Amino acid sequence: MRCQICGSHFEPCLSSSLPFCSPRCQQVDLGRWLNEEHGLPIEPGEGSEDNLSADLGNDTQWT
Fold first, then answer.
1. Domain assignments of the chain as residue spans, ordered by start
2. What is the mean pLDDT of residues 40-59?
3. What's the whole-number mean pLDDT along residues 6-22?
4. CB-CB contact of 10 with 25 (8 Å)
5. How far, rounded to the nearest angstrom, does the alpha carbon of residue 6 sit from its chain's CA centroid?
6. Residues 6 or more apart from 19 whose CB is under 8 A from it?
7. At a CB cut-off of 8 Å and minimum separation 6, what does 1 contact?
8. What angle do CA 24, 26, 28 make, to 5 degrees?
9. Residue 6: per-residue pLDDT
């Protein structure tokens, strides 16, 4: 298996940080997410402030 961060080959059964080769590479990936270098794609119109405002104004009760 190849590490997604450093590209080194490693045995998955020997790594406690899958899908990474080491805790260091796992932390590098986490840092990229926290620094917003990675993100999930959002369809146009999804997650916009207009939709959020409409959702917050909705009087639907949760059961």
1. 1-39
2. 64
3. 93
4. no
5. 18
6. 1, 3, 4
7. 9, 10, 11, 12, 19
8. 70
9. 96
Say which residue, 41 or 23, is predicted with more confidence: 23
Residue 12: which residues within 8 A CB-CB, separation 6 or more? 1, 18
Q: Which two tokens stand for residue 61?
A: 């009760």
Tokens 């940080």 correspond to what residue?
Answer: 17
pLDDT of residue 18: 93
Query: Residue 34: its pLDDT value, please?
Result: 94
In the chain, the DSSP E strands lie at none
Q: Which residues contact 15 (CB under 8 A, 6 or more apart)?
A: 21, 22
